[in-house]
Design brief:
The chain has four helices and six strands; from the N terminus they run αββαββαββα. The protein is of the alpha+beta class. It has one domain: Cytidine Deaminase, domain 2 (3-Layer(aba) Sandwich), CATH 3.40.140.10. The N terminus is likely disordered. The chain binds tetrahydrodeoxyuridine. The site of tetrahydrodeoxyuridine has 14 residues, from α2.
Amino acid sequence: MEHTHTPVDETTWQELQRAATEALAHSYSPYSNFPVGAAALVSDGRVVTGANIENASYGVTLCAECSLVSDLFMSGGGSLVAFVCVDGNGDVLMPCGRCRQLLYEHRAPDMQLLTVSGVRSMDEVLPDAFGPQNL
Ligand code: THU
């Protein structure tokens, strides 16, 4: 299915949160000691993941969402249908502002995010977003 308009079910959220938690094992976060894992369901049904990869030059750090987007492209492309990221305890974490922009670019039309305040749309977490439509 290229674009699903069905709500993401509870089992899928649980699987994504588990995949994000497993991705924590790949985090390289010796500076912050704050590992982050991310997982997303792609429009064709596969799951992509990411973890934060820090740098001695702190600002060069790649957030978990960066490696997730790389995984998306390197494993065949597509768009993101459902997304979650977690902290080192596996608890749901809000994507940082920059990463909301990253997710916006690669979202499926009705992408959902599991957030600290429940399931939210991209428009709810990044209203009136700047994007390709502005260029
Ligand atoms: N971090 C992410 O990987 N994603 C986010 O959305 C929030 C922040 C990482 C960056 C850094 O390695 C650590 O969390 C502490 O800021």
